[in-house]
Amino acid sequence: MADHDVIVVGAGFTGLAASRALIEAGCDVITVEARHRVGGRVESDFLPDGTRVDTGGQFLCRDMVNLVEVAHRHGARIVRSSTEGEQSYRPAIPPEAGEAIWDGVEQLREKMLALDMSDPSLARLTVGQWIDRQTDIAPEITGSFRRLVKGLWCRAPEDVSLAYLVSNDRRITNVYPELEMFLGDTMHALAEALAAPLGDRLRLSAPATSITMMDDSIEVDINGQAITARQVILAVPPVMARRIEISPALPAPLQKALAAWEPGCAIKLLIGYERPFWRDRGLSGSVIWSDPQGMYAFDTSHDAYCGIVVFLGGPLASEWHRKPQADLVAFVIGELTAALGDDAAHPTSTCMRDWVNDAWSDGAYSDVITDLDAADAEDVLLEGLPRLHFACSELSPSFPGYVEGAIVAGREAAKSVLAALGHRQE
Ligand SMILES: Cc1cc2nc3c(=O)[nH]c(=O)nc-3n(C[C@H](O)[C@H](O)[C@H](O)COP(=O)(O)OP(=O)(O)OC[C@H]3O[C@@H](n4cnc5c(N)ncnc54)[C@H](O)[C@@H]3O)c2cc1C
């Protein structure tokens, strides 16, 4: 007889959404989390003046309806990002030229999304190889498309499977800008609010190290203590799932599907200022770098904080990961000064979070498929095993790689578990 109905491994938004849905359906659920906190790739830090800032997932937009609903239900304060003013480019180019390149990049993205992936000439291609074939498109546009892949998927286009990117990007369907809004009290506080009703059913600092599938139950080993359940949801990204020893060994297709992914590389910095001085110059505070590629800045000021968030993604983040943090902070402040003006040289606070090789996610913003022979990896993982379900934002039918995707993935996994437990669902 199993100790519980369900064990959920991981208390990121996927695990929290799954746990909440299962508890609401009347299941006996235990949620185990390796870190000493909930939220996973959503986390926060406190600045010296006590202001809380998101150092992981932060932004949302109106299209992310499940996240918006969860935020409303928990009384989260939604702040509209400030975008008024001109976009800056580094190296500097006239705004019209920047807009023309951006239009070209959007068209190239549309072309990619419209590809017929059953065409044999597209089989086993990396995104980089596909970009190389676009010989009729201006190099500044293909170059900026590469930059977009590095910045959003946080890997070099040469690493990423084209089939994966097409499938992934087709599920990112926002009409509104993805940085449209954020939560004034942090996205991390929302994760904590989601976790609150779990009470002592949530165990922190409880990494699952091994899973044993038995005839009538499934055992999860946590810090040397074994707990059993009828069903398990592994709510961790694929690269973390493959670190858990599973016996008997997973069937070969599942092993291959788990091995198909590599983590993205991302570093996030928050540079705080006394006031939004860039607005005096008619600038929005948003900066796009074409050199170095994979760097982007955005105004994240609200009534309790004034500052610019800077993201580094892909090879640029891996490169800086190997250097002293203080050097990166100095480099970023120098770049902001060049883009926004001399006032940028005098921040009131700096905060940096390097997600490269993170202990419990191995990277960010999401894992990506790099195995060119693994077009079915997501389907195989979603199929899972009768008692073992794989769920994470990466595997979401909508907004994979985003907090919205995590909520949807968690709820979908909960539905599969309820079906396996024989619960009747509406
Ligand atoms: C810097 C950064 C910026 C981002 N910006 C945005 C943004 O603006 N908007 C947006 O929508 N998304 C953003 N994202 C992405 C978003 O945060 C993620 O897609 C989402 O949070 C993933 O949720 P998840 O629950 O699927 O995975 P995770 O959050 O990774 O949760 C998995 C959990 O499992 C735990 N775990 C791992 N292994 C084990 C184990 N063996 N035993 C027990 N527990 C384990 C981990 O500690 C973690 O808590 C960003 C991410 C980062 C890092």
Describe the structure.
- With 426 residues, this protein is α/β, with parallel strands linked by helices.
- The chain has two domains: 4-40 and 188-263 and 372-420, FAD/NAD(P)-binding domain (3-Layer(bba) Sandwich), CATH 3.50.50; 84-172 and 266-354, Polyamine Oxidase, Chain A, domain 2, CATH 3.90.660.
- Helices cover 33% and strands 23% of the residues.
- The chain contains 13 helices and 21 strands.
- The strands form five sheets. Strands 1, 2, 9, 10, 11, 12, 13 and 21 form an eight-stranded mixed sheet that branches.
- Strand 11 and strand 12 form a beta hairpin.
- The chain is globular and about 70 Å long.
- The mean pLDDT is 97.
- The site of flavin-adenine dinucleotide has 41 residues, from helix 1, strand 5, strand 15 and helix 13.
- The site of flavin-adenine dinucleotide (FAD) has 41 residues, from helix 1, strand 5, strand 15 and helix 13.
Short account of what is shown:
Helices cover 33% and strands 23% of the residues. The protein has 426 residues and is an alpha/beta fold.
Q: What would CATH call the class of the largest domain?
A: Alpha Beta
- Which fold does the CATH topology of the largest domain refer to? Polyamine Oxidase, Chain A, domain 2
Output the structural class.
Answer: alpha/beta
What level of helicity do the residues show?
Answer: 25-40%
What are the main properties of this structure?
426 residues, alpha/beta, FAD/NAD(P)-binding domain, Polyamine Oxidase, Chain A, domain 2, six-stranded mixed beta sheet, 23% strand, globular, binds flavin-adenine dinucleotide
